[in-house]
Amino acid sequence: VGSVRGVEGPARNPPMGTLILTLPLARSGTATEYRYTLSPDGHSASRHANARASLLPAMGRASEVVAVVPAQALSWQRVSLPPGIGLQAPRLRAVLDGLLEERLLDDTAQLHFALQPGARAGRRVWVAICGRAWLRESLQALEAAGRPVARVVPEFAPGPTASGQPELFVQGTPDDPQLVITG
User: Fold this and answer.
1) pLDDT (tens digit per residue) in 64-85
2) In 3D, which of 19, 12, 114, 109 has the Cα closest to residue 65?
């Protein structure tokens, strides 16, 4: 069980530089290319391109690597967490397994769960779900290339948008167009 960090939460000092990369949907290998954006301050982009993990821009000690999970790799489920359950408790995973097993097509043991930021016991929360082996393999490939990931965030998350209105995103390629509605 993890936390979808970086979507919202308390302000913190931005790193000196941020490498933001999108995890590929296909299984990771040495020839896998990552779309990336380099930001000197965590707010503006200075460069973007595609590169293999070993050829991604070098990062200094004060920098961080942020991995973006594509919308197609995630499932979002809303559950009510039981009162009194500690969010760091080892039994949280078992509780989530029980709450989600009837809703999911895959065995929960094959899935990674991440709670929305600010999740609290006794409340309805969003749970981001993706393939555990796919995520582990993706993160290990980056670690092996000397680009360890500090945060994993979703490409899109449920909830209100910055504008407060529904927002429409068209992305992808002519051969693989995608339409995303948020808000």
Assistant:
1) 999 999 999 999 999 999 998 8
2) 19
